[in-house]
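Side project, low priority. Logging it here so it doesn't get lost.
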Amino acid sequence: MWFGHVSRMSGDRLPTRALHCYIPGRCSRGRPCKKWINNIQEDLNCLQLNKKEATDIVRDRQEWRHRISTSSSPLG
């Protein structure tokens, strides 16, 4: 649900910029922490959508809510 909310925001808003940002640099050793966008990507894979398709569907709030209500994720 939050992905849909942030995706509908204008591009100059901080949450939208944070969603699509890339921070250069090296990570410390060990297993990388799981990021929120990785969870989103897994949920989209379950819905058989890529990020571009999901962003297009988000524009139609009713369709997006229908899609996430049928999702297997407990939090939508």
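Brief comment: The chain has five helices and no strands.
Revisit when time allows.
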